[in-house]
Design brief:
Shape: globular
Number of domains: 2
Helix content: 40-55%
Distance between the termini: 34 Å
Order of helices and strands: HHHHHHHHEEEHH
Strand content: 5-15%
Structural class: mainly alpha
Number of helices: 10
Radius of gyration: 17 Å
Largest sheet: 3 strands, mixed
């Protein structure tokens, strides 16, 4: 699933214009191309180049990650797509988050790109379900603050997926996934008496 998502991302990158690549994404201050740079760096950056950046960042992982993504995004889009394809089958398994984290990273960042560009999400139901299970499973370090999903009942209306107890947060699996990971535009696509509390958690 991860390999296929990387190849699909490569195809998406190749289809985008220079203007689309410069478009702000849903992921913080990153442009679409910088999001792609992050996805490439996660699988293709050499350890020899990552270590100096980690040192310059003061060993702050999020800052190092942003620096590495920006450096990678300086490459031509076609080169980034080729790197995603070349490393699609990489067996690298990150600590703690493992393969579910990699799959979720690709799906969430895919939407960080597609939503601002008005492109259909084309998410696969079984992969989306795997990411939802991961995001509420307590091991999604760096994806979801531990308390965000707690005390709410989550329902993905198109997947028959539910989790938790409490005030209801309901929407498509795509919107639920993005809301769990703090993407504020997705909150407008949700309904239920738990959405107000979720907004407070995302904003806080």
């Amino acid at each position: 699933m991860i390999a296929d998502e990387r190849r699909r991302m490569a195809g998406l990158v190749e289809s985008l214009t220079a203007e689309q690549l410069r478009t702000p994404s849903l992921c913080g201050a990153w442009t679409v191309k910088e999001v792609v740079g992050h996805l490439v760096a996660a699988v293709a950056a050499a350890k020899s180049s990552a270590l100096p950046i980690l040192i310059r960042s003061g060993f702050r992982l999020h800052r190092a990650n942003a620096m590495l993504a920006t450096r990678m995004a300086a490459r031509p889009a076609g080169e980034l797509a080729a790197m995603l394809r070349a490393h699609a089958e990489s067996p690298f398994r990150p600590p703690i988050v493992g393969y579910p984290g990699q799959l979720t990273d690709l799906q969430v960042h895919g939407q960080d790109i597609r939503r601002p560009l008005g492109l259909p999400h084309e998410l696969r139901p079984e992969r989306l379900r795997a990411s939802l299970d991961f995001l509420v499973g307590g091991r999604a370090i760096g994806f979801v603050p531990r308390r965000r999903p707690l005390g709410l009942r989550w329902e993905a209306t198109d997947l028959g997926w539910t989790w938790g107890d409490g005030p209801l947060v309901r929407g498509t699996g795509e919107a639920v996934m993005l809301a769990l990971t703090g993407r504020r535009p997705a909150l407008d696509d949700l309904s239920g008496d738990g959405v107000a509390e979720l907004r407070r958690r995302v904003s806080g």
